[in-house]
Amino acid sequence: MRADRIADPWGDRTPYGRHETWPSRVDGYLAEGVEPAAVHRWVAAASLLHSGGDAMDIAVVDGRMAGVRGRAADRVSRGRLGPKDLFGWQANASADRLTRPLVRRGGHLVETDWDTAMELVAARTRELLEERGPGSIGFYTSGQLFLEEYYTLAVLARAGIGTNHLDGNTRLCTATAAEALKESFGCDGQPGSFDDLDHADVIALFGHNMAETQTVQWSRVLDRQAGGDPPRLLCVDPRPTQVARHAAVHLAPRAGTNVALLNALLHETIRHDRIDHDFVEAHTVGFEELSERVAPCTPQWAADICDVPVSRIIEAAELIGTADALLSTVLQGVYQAHQATAAAVQVNNLHLIRGMLGRPGAGVLQMNGQPSAQNTRECGADGDLPGFRNWQNDAHVADLAKVWNVEPSAIPHFAPPTHAMQMFRYAEQGSIGMLWISGTNPAVSLPELTRIRALLAQERLFTVVQDLFLTETARLADVVLPAATWGEKTGTITNADRTVHLCEKAVEPPGEARPDLDIFVDFARRMDFRDKDGGPLIGWREPEEAFEAWKRCSAGRPCDYTGLSYDRLRDAGGIQWPCTEANPQGTERLYTDGITWAHPDDCESYGKDLETGAAVDPVEYRSLNPDGKAVLKAAAYVEPHEMPDERYPFQLSTGRTLYHFHTRTKTGRVAQLDEAAPEVWVEVCAADAVRLGLGEGDLVRVATPRGALEARLRVTDLRPGLLFVPFHYGYWDTKEGDGPDGGGPGRAANETTVTDWDPASKQPLFKTAAAALTLVARADGRYAPAPTTTASAPSDAGSVPATTGGRQAYATQDTVPGGTP
Ligand SMILES: Nc1nc2c(c(=O)[nH]1)N[C@H]1C(S)=C(S)[C@@H](COP(=O)(O)OP(=O)(O)OC[C@H]3O[C@@H](n4cnc5c(=O)[nH]c(N)nc54)[C@H](O)[C@@H]3O)O[C@H]1N2
Ligand SMILES: Nc1nc2c(c(=O)[nH]1)N[C@H]1C(S)=C(S)[C@@H](COP(=O)(O)OP(=O)(O)OC[C@H]3O[C@@H](n4cnc5c(=O)[nH]c(N)nc54)[C@H](O)[C@@H]3O)O[C@H]1N2
Ligand SMILES: [Mo]
What we know:
By secondary structure, the chain is α/β, with parallel strands linked by helices. The chain is built from 27 helices and 29 strands. It has four domains: 2-97, no CATH class; 102-167 and 372-576, Rossmann fold (3-Layer(aba) Sandwich); 175-367 and 596-631, Dimethylsulfoxide Reductase, domain 2 (3-Layer(aba) Sandwich), CATH 3.40.228.10; 650-790, Barwin-like endoglucanases (Beta Barrel).
């Protein structure tokens, strides 16, 4: 069967009932003119454009990628693929891929050979180490490389250079997921499993537009809704997402008020005694304090703050309170906020007091966004030590030093690992003299771009950018290293429910582009990093050797990989960690038998004060939680730092659309995806549009105290007083002289966002800013270039042509009879 998967992103329904197995449906797409029989090889991989980890095979014809298909047996997708995965691979073959290293000479980036480029980087590193020490060097990496690459980078940076300045764009993405898990359970590690979607009777989505950002798991929800005993959904999102449209209860709160709402939900749960007292007694500390703190947080109190009907809050509390198996998911509507960790922790609290953990259907998914964000975190390429080790615990540092065969003092742990927002500040001030950026495009994705551009362009900052394309960030670099990507190199990625997939090399990279692992290993060799016995610090070259080295580092930690191998992953497909020799099938759910990693000797973190971010000291933690139970941490609601006023009367939120990935370096180069959403737009509700005399398609200006952008207006059903702008659109494909560089109007959402972050997770705020909206030019018959299939659907359905993909977007969908192949 063929279907236009741009017009229908989720594909056909395969209904199933509660506690049944999700039926398979194998999705595939082959390039125009390629017949299945012409495919020479199918090479195993998994999705790289979100955190779902959908297994997919890459079709190879004459040494080139020619298509993809899902894998029926895959535990997370059962064969399905979303539009980004069906079509996105085509970007690999873009004519403008970087194929040779570039170095800046006389103000211009010019091509050079690898040896010259790498020697330049190594020479600068040596010079800085000698003159100013390891603290003058910083690394900013990604959630999109492979585990093997992060681990190598973590060893290289932490024990080789000896710098504390290593973080990922995961800071913008899943830092709050990690922090909320540490606060509640003492340690990172996703408690739940995607399989919980098969068993839950209530699914609550907090600030998570699953329909657009995890399209395959959303198909699963739709399939359950079409089957017997469907789950009831609770959606907390100020926009009319597809999730909201399918919800039994939809709350559209004022942006930035999640803590008030969650405190009211806790208040109601406790008031009605919908509590699992045995679970609370056996597995938690802090219940009394939590009860006291939420006692004044009545639904009426929250209704005023959140600007939602009080009856709706009571309904939401009843849904949660009467669930037999509750699954909650949490994502950026919670994480990119001034009280990110405080709010995410209250979702954990709801589960803990209701005993909704560790059994089928009862679980929390503190979601990840990027495909390998989990690996960035577990390998310590973010602001943590590898293997979820605790930087404040000398025994953990000593253990890591043993794995690496270095002195503990060689691993900086005098202060918490530096977070990305602080690293950029150091680069701005000049204490960081070299910043090596891999697999991320901060000149589009960080807040307050005027500041970021100026900071990266500084003469005194030596910037290395490792990417596939000459991105906005690469254009500001001193050295640009052309990387190979997914499909052109081998490695593993771990998705949001701890499922590890192997991605194998299918084709050669273009030109001289090299895998990120090769680049890091090459650098380590040039720097001649040694262990304490004079052996090489990094003794591996190949991905599988790096994986084996990581296994040794993960041994005995929560993310234990010792039972996995490339061969096992080839045979079995995706496997969930922890996976040991004693437990070779992996682990579906954490915390099935109590809270296992919160003990003071084992925990990754002693926690932080949710309001100030101050670290709890070991002695305090030990006295609060001597037996290592889950910690119920309360938090008071605090108003967003920047609220609308007369000059800036709107709240501005930013986020995603289904058809694009981040700064569009891949999806913007693919016809099917680009044409579905070719330009930036801004969403406003009908009442606000009428009040301001604005209409669909008008060119408007959105301004905040930091900057402005221009976009066409889409009138939708989002909450009054709110504006929404997708953050995907940088300026790489605008005409010469256009965009902020050339003085024209900006179109990147981050021209407007603020440099500010959650005190505990240090994740920046992308969901609340005060903004003004003014007319630039009338629509003159034009429409906003926004999809109609998604949250950006126009409130007047017939007013805009429907989003379709046409023939070029036809993909196959095959349901396997009988479900499980
Ligand atoms: N199509 C697509 N999928 C992706 C990505 C992509 O770029 N494109 N990126 C991947 C990555 S890295 C990530 S992190 C995830 C992100 O996935 P999501 O978090 O689902 O995506 P966002 O659009 O950032 O934000 C989700 C929702 O938060 C809502 N929101 C805004 N403010 C508030 C608030 O104050 N409270 C609440 N409750 N909700 C609020 C917004 O209306 C929005 O619908 O997606 C992943 N998947
Ligand atoms: N306003 C606003 N801003 C946001 C957000 C928001 O919701 N609103 N969301 C934030 C979130 S959650 C995220 S995750 C970030 C994402 O922000 P970024 O990480 O900056 O976005 P990407 O476009 O994914 O950048 C990844 C880069 O890596 C390159 N790349 C891809 N594969 C490889 C590879 O194998 N090797 C190398 N070396 N490079 C590769 C790509 O070409 C691309 O340039 O944006 C954040 N910024
Ligand atoms: Mo993300």
